[in-house]
Predict the structure.
Amino acid sequence: MGPGAGSGTGSGAAAGTGSEGELGSGPPASAWGNRSFRRVWAAGTASEAGTQIADLSLPVLAVVTLGASAFQLSLTRAAFVVPYLLLPLWVGVLVDRRARRPLMISADLARGLLLLAVAGLALAGWLSLPVLIGAALAVGSFGVLYVLAEFAFLPSVVTREQLADANARTAATRSALEVAGSGMGGAIVQVLTAPFAVLVNAFAYLGSALLLRRVVADEQAAPETQPSGTWRAAREGVSTLRRSRILRPLAAEAATWNLGNEILLLALTVHLVNGLELGALILGGLLMTVGVGAVLGSATSARLTARFGYGPALVAALVLGNSAPLVGLVAGAGLDRAALIGLGVAFFVSGVGIGVADSQAATVRQLSTPSHLQGRVNSAYRLFSWGALAIGALLAGGLVTQFGAYPAALIGASFMALATLPVALSPVRRMRTLTQEPASPH
């Protein structure tokens, strides 16, 4: 995910209590002293670690244990991710009509029990490919529920002053898990085999559920004025997104970045793997540099906003993070050592920009959306940003076939660089604090 591509909601009007201008105008308040936040953070860390392991262990289980073909493997992967494209709007309505913590606990318990069953069937020799695909579809669906409920839940756990620090800590942790996730999952699969890796995955989700049971939070009940029909309620989230002077440009940036990033990653994979003997290893190293940069950026995000103001800090981070891959590709077109080192530096710089932008953008979206709309607006935002991933993946294959891997990578990186424009040209660039309403008209 790129800058602004993380989970988030927002509307044009700031909601909630507290004086405007408090957030982003001084040193960020630490959320670490909040016991409930520590438990939510630990639960989210366990859940994200489980997801990272599942990304590797389920496909390996399909290939090694069940002997799946390439097409069957693609079905297994598609089953895991397709709920992220089909369900967000409807799950967002549910998140706004129910208490979020029980939804998160239910999602973790369901994923944990499903994967326990998969691991048990695999170890007993009774697992079949249709059962695995069905389980992957269900695990992915409950993953959508957890992600949307977690984002809407966090503002009820911490104070408004602590929210920026809470998001920064969460973003930094997830960036670190993305760096280590593939290696961690690979090591578990290599040492324990895929069925036991799935078992570890299941216990990670169950541990997350246990931590969430101990969280105390003041969740506001959904207002009685909500639309009665599911479709009408979902449309309200999309409409709020469309009208928002804060969220609309952030959503446009996220969708454009995700579109370009999908093209870049597929093209770069072909470019490196076909051109170098150690191409897969080098690609993994490049992606790790993005994660390392994102950890650093997340750690400094709140302080940069406090010093320079939210809008200027965000635009600077987007220019840095979104443009760096294009600069790296243009500067080093070949596959020699100097070009690869330059690309690694560019990806690291991009990661720093991603880390700075993501956590603060999430805070703004949370603070500027009424509690009863958090789930639906966030789900509409997710629909656009995740939908762009699917479009980018489809475009990438055609672009690589038509123009070649390196030109396609340049096209993808160009989309990423252009993603900054919606925010740079919007009233968001003039926001000084995280709760400030942009002053210019629509």
Q: What stands out?
A: Residues 1-22 have pLDDT under 50 and may be disordered.
